[in-house]
Amino acid sequence: LRFLRHDWEGGCADLLELTRARPRFARAHYHLGVARFAAGLDVERSGRDGRQQLDEAIADLVRTSALEPDAGTSLTRTSRGVALVGRAEAETRHGGDPVPWYEQAIAEHDEALRRLPEFVGALMNRAMALRGLAVALARQGKVGRPALARARDDCDEALRLSPNEVIAWLNRGLVRLSAGDAAGAIADFDEAIARRPACRKAWLNRSAAHLQAHAFEQAEADAGRAIELAPDDALGYANRGIARRGRAERDAAGGKDPQAA
Question: How far apart are CA 102 and CA 84, in angstroms?
C-alpha cells in the first residue's frame, strides 16, 4: 500500500523490518532495493544528494542475487542496471564521473540478456544506459558514437519484439536525438504519440527534436501540449521558452518584429 501511495520512506521502513526478521528472504531485499532507489530519485529531484540511498538500493539488489542466484535473475540484474543508471545521473549532477556507473549498468543488462535474450525491458534499459554512456563520453571529449550505435540496435530489437511498446519508441527517439537525427527522432515520437496521445514525455521530447531541427513553431506547440498534460513540470516551460526565443531571433534576423513572437 505504501508503494501505491509513493511513500518510499515508509515502504523502506517496513521492508527493512522484514529483512531483519527474515534476513534470507530474497524478495524482501529486492523490493527494499526498489523502494530505496525510488527514494533516492526523489531526493535527487528535490535538489539534494541522493547518492547514499542509491548506493543502498544497489547493495540490496546485489544481496538479492546472492540469496537467490537462479530465480528471477534477469529481472534482478536489469533492475540493478536501472539503479546504476540512476546512480550515474546523480554522479553527473554532483560533478563526478558517471562513466564507470554507466559501464556497470551495461554489464548488468548484458548478463540479463545473456540469460533471457528476448527480455524487452532489459533491451530498452540497456539502450538508455548506452545512450547515457555516449553522452558522458562526449562531454569528456571522447568518442560516444559506438555506444549510440549499440543503443539503436537494442531499440530496433525491442521494437521488433514489441512493436506497440511506447517506451521503446520513446527510447529510440532519444537515441536518434542524441545522434543528431532530429527527423528520425520526430518520426519515433510521432509513433509514441499515436499509441499514447497523453504521453507527456513524447510531446516534450518531440518538442526537443523540433528545437534541434530549428522548427520553432512546432517545438512551441509540442511544449504547450506537454505543459497541458503536466503543468507542474518545468521542462515544458523551458522548451517553450527556448522555442519562443529561437523564433524571435530568427524573425529579427529576417527583418520581422521580434515582439510578435
Answer: 7
Alpha helices in 116-165 (DSSP H): 120-139, 145-161
Residue 1: CB atoms within 10 A of its CB come to 8
**How would residue 15 be classed by pLDDT, with cut points 50, 70 and 90?**
very high
Cell of 19: 529483512
Q: DSSP letters along 219-241, please? A: HHHHHHHHHHH-TT-HHHHHHHH
In Å, the largest CA–CA distance within the chain is 73
From the list 60, 53, 52, the residue with the least C-alpha distance to 30 is 60
Chain segment 38-93, per-residue pLDDT in tens: 999 999 999 999 999 999 999 999 999 999 877 668 999 999 999 999 999 999 99
d(C-alpha 147, C-alpha 131), whole Å: 7
Q: How far apart are CA 33 and CA 144, in angstroms?
A: 30
Q: What is the pTM of this model?
A: 0.91
Averaged over 15-40, what is the pLDDT?
94
What is the sign, positive or negative, of the torsion defined by CA atoms of 230, 232, 238, 244? positive
CB 175 within 8 A of CB 148: yes
For the four alpha carbons of 243, 244, 245 and 249, in that order, the dihedral sign comes to positive
The answer to whether residues 51 and 91 touch, using CB atoms and an 8 Å cutoff, is yes
Q: How high is the pLDDT of residue 68?
A: 83
The sign of the torsion formed by the CA atoms of 250, 252, 256, 261 equals: positive
